[in-house]
Design a protein that fits this description.
Elements lengths: L18 E9 L5 H11 L5 H14 L16 H6 L6 E6 L3 E7 L7 H8 L4 E7 L6 H12 L4 E7 L8 H15 L6 E6 L23 H7 L12 E3 L2 E6 L2 E7 L4 E3 L3 E4 L5 E9 L2 E2 L2 E3 L3 E6 L10 E3 L6 E12 L10 E6 L2 E14 L6 E2 L9 E14 L10 E5 L6 E12 L13 H7 L5 E6 L6 H14 L4 E5 H4 L11 H20 L3 E5 L5 H8 L7 E7 L2 H7 L4 H6 L21 E4 L5 H14 L7
Helix pairs in contact: 9-15, 11-12
Length: 631
């Protein structure tokens, strides 16, 4: 890594004019990120007269610098940001010098807004990492550095800000730089430049400061002008994720999308990543008309020389350098939701233009943001970073993130709220989906069910402990068995003596408990049985994930409803009393939440009817849905 002061100010200009650098400012709270960008905009004459006038008014109202202009307010556009004096959302600004154009992202420093910082970093080529000279490196400084590295940023400028508040102390500056370089050895940065500065007073921002005669390097702006920020995307293999199939009439069929890597030329042969079908490029249609070629970042519509099957979410690629196609991969993941990430829970995964259900099967470890050491973890909390294994419902095309940021990055979306739950960067595939095909069987589910005169299904009894799930399910099974039907009952307590004996009662263990039960129930349904499952199963997301493993009509959710007070009064196992006394942690209804079904197939209110009557209602449901075929 080059040392401070080795920045070359000579930079060849790209054909057609100035080069463009996208960079972000990041770091901990109150390190001066917004102030620095505001100063850069001001001194590069990027603020118009009306903006300066508004900045002066806002400085008098919200400023923290006395009579002087508070440059941070040039970026903090939200009223809440101005009132609180913090950055919440990502603010993008454009400015230029005679030598270069810049797009800069001002990102939040608060830990709770880490997701916004990651969003800002995802499209940048360089980062200016600010450190308060008085405080030195903080946890958020390290966290932001790790995120920058994970998101493919390879060039960092360490800006030791507020150097005026330590009397321009060279020793303090060098101490911080040395500590940061030692920390960053574990990160994949190609270059680290360092600059001592005062964003408030302009020292070493755009011109050298007379108050740091000991600093021989270039000021921040010159350092940014000299950074090698040229995109390497054009050198990558060709990738075009298909966003839309355009067919206005029978004579035109085009595939629209934005090129995510490489260069596309008319006449070139491309392949569909999933099917392997190939065709040559007959036309490249752009907003300006037909073109002979198009490069990374351009939106195009491709017309192929022959009809092949291409759909939204497919990726067109070079025939000899196809992306990996698999349903399992390993990835770095930044978790963003307040609720923890629990393995086994289903999310929607979006990669490029492809949406598919996905599950985090394993959390391999989380990353200690202070030491970069891997730490064991059963869950990821908000703003934690970990390495995980993910399985998708169908095979998807992807590249490792280090090879292509566009086809290697994904987000996980909460299936209920549609909020972004996590952002990930693919490390490598784990197993190609085609390597483990389904084995064809001579006897199938229909054959087994016909022999038993029934349509197999799973009856999923859910409700609080003591609601009456097992009591009713036992009566149902006895009735079905008496009538000659084939059943199997899976009880939560019984399975914890064997299959699930290794699991506790944390949220993560509860999710895994239900996932395993769902797999067993699926196998038993394949055997043609009517399966009765009695589990508290407190989380809607987990019950939905089990339902999705079955064919339509094979999963019947039965809500055994009883008020908590009634369950406590019954307390057949004495568990509520122990939970209330604090002797059982994470007990559903007391110290852990229960999420009632929103649209169950049947509701059984155990206060309103006797167990025998409720069991008959379950049998009637099976009759009505066609699961019982009587002679």
């Amino acid at each position: 890594m080059p040392e401070s002061g080795q920045v070359s100010l000579e930079r060849p200009q790209a054909a057609g004019g100035q080069t463009l650098l996208r960079f972000l400012t990041c770091g901990s709270v109150d390190d001066g990120k917004s102030t620095l960008i505001g100063r850069l905009l001001y001194e590069s004459a990027a603020l118009f007269d009306d903006q300066l006038a508004a900045l002066e008014r806002d400085s008098r109202r919200h400023g923290t610098t006395g009579e002087a202009i508070d440059f941070a307010l040039a970026l903090d556009g939200l009223e809440a940001e101005r009132e609180q004096g913090i950055t919440i959302d990502v603010a993008y600004r454009y400015f230029s010098t005679p030598r270069r154009k810049f797009i800069v992202a001002d990102t939040p420093g608060h830990e709770q807004y880490t997701r916004n910082m990651a969003t800002g970093a995802s499209n940048c080529e360089a980062a200016v990492l600010l450190v308060d000279a008085r405080k030195g490196l903080l946890a958020q400084t390290r966290r932001h550095s790790i995120i920058c590295s994970l998101l493919g940023i390879r060039r960092v400028v360490l800006a030791v800000n507020k150097i005026d508040l330590v009397a321009f102390d060279r020793a303090r500056y060098e101490e911080i730089c040395e500590e940061y370089r030692a920390f960053a050895k574990g990160l994949d940065f190609a270059a680290i430049e360092t600059v001592p500065l005062s964003a408030r007073f302009g020292d070493n921002v755009t011109v050298p400061s007379e108050r740091t005669p000991w600093f021989a390097g270039a000021p921040l702006l010159a350092t940014l002008e000299a950074l090698d920020g040229e995109s390497e995307a054009a050198a990558r293999s060709f990738r075009l994720p298909v966003q839309l199939v355009i067919r206005p009439d029978s004579d035109f069929r085009g595939f629209a999308g934005t090129i995510a890597g490489g260069v596309l030329r008319k006449g070139a042969v491309v392949k569909v990543s999933h099917s392997g079908q190939a065709a040559s490029v007959a036309r490249i249609v752009t907003p300006g008309g037909d073109a002979e070629q198009a490069k990374t970042g351009e939106a195009v519509t491709v017309v192929l020389s022959k009809e092949i099957d291409v759909a939204r979410g497919d990726v067109l690629a070079e025939p000899t350098q196809l992306p990996e196609v698999a349903n399992q991969f390993s990835a770095n993941l930044i978790w963003m939701q307040p609720e923890p990430l629990l393995p086994g829970r289903s999310y929607l995964l979006r990669l490029g233009t492809k949406f598919t259900p996905a599950t985090v099967t394993t959390i391999k470890h989380r990353i200690n943001v202070n030491t970069l050491d891997p730490l064991p973890a059963k869950a990821l909390e908000a703003n934690e970073i970990g390495v995980v294994n993910i399985e998708t419902a169908q095979a998807i095309a992807f590249d490792a993130y280090r090879d292509n940021r566009e086809t290697g990055a994904f987000i996980l979306v909460d299936r209920e709220t549609r909020a972004t739950a996590g952002a990930g960067m693919i490390l490598h595939g784990l197993r190609r989906a085609t390597n483990v095909p389904w084995q064809a069987l001579s006897v199938d589910k229909r054959t087994r069910a016909t022999l038993k005169r029934q349509a197999p299904c799973t009856l999923w009894f859910t409700g609080l402990s003591g609601a009456g799930k097992s009591t009713i399910a036992n009566l149902v099974e006895a009735r079905l068995s008496r009538d000659g039907f084939h059943t199997m009952m899976l009880d939560g307590d019984n399975l914890r003596h064997g299959l699930n004996r290794d699991l506790g009662f944390s949220d993560a263990d509860r999710v895994e408990n239900i996932r395993r039960v769902g797999e067993v129930a699926k196998i038993l349904v394949e055997a043609g049985l009517i399966v009765l499952c009695c589990f508290i199963s407190p989380f809607r997301a987990d019950r939905r994930a089990v339902r999705e493993r079955f064919d339509a009509g094979e999963f019947l959710e039965i809500f055994v409803d009883a008020p908590l007070a009634t369950c406590i009064e019954r307390d057949p196992k004495g568990l509520y009393r122990k939970a209330i006394d604090g002797r059982i942690p994470n007990f559903t209804g007391i110290s852990s939440a229960y999420e009632p079904p929103e649209s169950p197939d049947l509701v059984l209110e155990t206060q309103a009817a006797a167990p025998d009557e409720l069991a008959e209602r379950v049998v009637a449901l099976l009759e009505a849905r066609g699961h019982l075929r009587r002679a």
